[in-house]
Structure formats: C-alpha cells, structure tokens
Amino acid sequence: MVFLLVVIYIAFIGLGVPDSLIGSAWPAIHSELNVSVEAVSILTFIISGCTVLSSMFSAGILNKFGTAKVTAFSTAMTAAALFGFSVAPSFWVMIPIAAVLGLGAGAIDSGLNNYVALNFKASHMNFLHCFYGVGVTFSPYIMSIALKDAGWRSGYRYAFFVQLVITLLLIVSLPLWKKNSAVQPTEEKDANLTFLQMVKMPEVRNVWVIMLTTNAIEYACGVWGSTYLVTEKGFAAEHGALALTVYYAGMSVGRFVSGLLSDKISTWKRIGAGAFILAPAIVIMLLPLHGVFTVAGLFLVGLGNGSIYPNMIHLTPHNFGKEASQTVMGSQIAFAYIGVMLAPPMVSIISGLFSIKVYPVLIAVLYAVMVIFIKLFINRLKKQGRYNANV
C-alpha cells in the first residue's frame, strides 16, 4: 500500500508538470510566434474547457476502466501534448494539442482525488496536492533554464521526458492497484445523481463556487504572474519564470505544512487558516511596491490558497457521502477548472480595458467571493447536521 501511495504521489507530480509551463513560457512564446500577449487565454480556455468535460464524465469512465488504467492512459495523453507543444510550428497548431492536454488532465485529477479521499487520511490528501505543487514548481524552474540557454521549446521537451517516465511508472505499477483495490462508490447514489439533481442542492452549488474561486486565484497568479512581473515590474523573461517557482513553492509548502498538521488541527480550521493568510498576501499584491515585494506576495498567495483546494477535496465523502463522492468529486473538479478556464480571459479583458496593473484587484474580488461562500457552505452543512468541525 505504501508503494502504491508513492506511485499516486508521483502521478500527481505529472499532473502538475504541464500546468505552470504555459505561464512561465508565454512571454517568449508570444514573441516568437508573433501573437498577442492576451492570446494565452485561448490556450488556457481550451485546456480548462476540455478538463471540465473530462471531469464531468469521469465517473462513468473511471467506474468502467478503473482508476489505474485511466490514470496511466491520461498521463500518456499529457506527455504527448507536451511533446506536441515543443514542435508546434504556429499558435494555431497549439490549439488542438491544448485540447488533448485538457482531456488527459481532468480524468487524472478526478480519479486520484476520489481514490485518496476514500482510502487515505487528510494528511495524505494534502501531501498528494503537495506533490502537485512539486510538479508546478519544477516546471517554471526547468523552463527558466531552457529560456536562458536553449529556448521555450526545449523547456517543453524536458517536461515531456519527465512525463514519459511517470507514464511508464504508472504502467508498470498497474498490478499494485489490483492488490489494493479501492472502494468503488458506483452502486447507489452515484448511479442516479445527475447534474440537474446536483444543481438543486444548495450545498453542492456552494462548494462549486468555492472550487471555482480558489482555482481561479491559483491560475490567475500562475498564468499572469510572470507576465505581470515582466510587463509592470521590469523583470527579464527568465526572472519572471523563476518568480513563478517561488509562487508554486509557496503553494507546495502550504500543502506540506497542512499535511503535517492534519492530526493536530481539523480540516476546517486548516481551510480557515489558509483563507486568513491570503488576506495580507492580496494586500501586498495591491500595493504599488517593488517587484521583490510582489514576488513575496505571490509566495504568500500560494502558501494560503494552496491548502484550501485539497482540504475541500478531502471533505467530499464527509460532506456528501461515500456513495455519491465520485460524482460530486467530478463536478467539483469540473467547476475548479471552470475557474481555471475563466480566470485568464478575465485578466485579459481587464488588461485590455484598463491595464494589467489592475489584475491584483481581480484576485481580491475572487478572494472575497470565496470567503463568503465558504461561510454559506458551512452554514448549510450545520442546518443539515453534517458539519463536523473536528474532521
């Protein structure tokens, strides 16, 4: 069981590897391919949209083929997409490749999250997402090296080789999943709980908004943080990419610490602590300070926001029941990626109408909405007698 858990952690590194590449590489990509800075939103929109589709339909696919096979195949899809980006001759060729990347990511995210939520403790869920943080931290670092020495295409090739190794590991580990088969929540609510039924459930709608906003904050910083530092703070492209490493390091640290504290501090309190840390981080982002302070603000955003998503994911079986967890999990992750999908275009629109200087304001608005809906969600669970502050 321990070795299988290690394999799952490594698979989540593979989930994180592609996510931060586009943001760190985009200042160089848009110059070479002669497209606008805002065009990155087209790619992120397609990646996220396909991830949403994959997540929404993941329950049936995972129940039919199993978490292990779906994870291995989907990781192979993301590896192929990374290689495709590295050789793409134009921006327009990147568009169908982005669709492949998104479809692969959604199934991995939904399947592994539900598997861990059902079979492991809260600490393991936080460590799982900490390893996602390792992936998204590693990517800007290797991209910064590539931008300095060889170019962004080499950065994508480096990432492809990492993803290829992870794919091979998942294929080799397939027998382990049979020995450690997870509970498959497919017989009761999962078979009948439709999207329309979930829409009618206020507690599900509340958690959808929470997932949307926390991931919108994460991705708005991940995609636009480097461009903001290059455009407004005078950073070189490779330094902007390296700054994203600091941001994702903050996210990884937040998740790691949350995992360490899981036996001492309840999940809900750790969510509250993350929201509390976000407040001063956003204030720093809003102030007209030197770029070094902005990087510090990004680190704190990662530190605070990073633990909210995995802890909300872990609570899914507790909040909605084990039988319905895979269906609700898929919908939660779908809305998380709707946030991922909408955040970059929102920044693009704001930048076009005003200036990229005001992009931290969007982060502040998203934060306020998230905090409000966390409170609404807790109140709804209390009314239903399902809120447990000690979980």
Topology:
Elements: H1 2-16, H2 21-32, H3 40-56, H4 58-65, H5 67-87, H6 91-119, H7 122-149, H8 152-172, H9 174-179, H10 189-192, H11 195-199, H12 202-232, H13 237-260, H14 267-286, H15 291-305, H16 308-314, H17 316-320, H18 325-353, H19 359-383
Helix pairs in contact: 1-6, 1-7, 1-8, 2-7, 2-12, 2-13, 3-6, 3-18, 4-5, 4-6, 5-6, 5-8, 6-18, 7-8, 7-13, 7-16, 12-13, 12-15, 12-18, 12-19, 13-15, 14-15, 14-16, 14-19
- Number of self-contained structural domains: 1
What is the rounded distance between the termini?
24 Å
- The total beta strand count reads 0
Task: Return the average pLDDT rounded to an integer.
Answer: 85
Strand content: under 5%
Approximate shape: globular
Examine the secondary-structure arrangement and name the CATH architecture: Up-down Bundle
Described by strand count, sense and barrel closure, the largest sheet is:
none
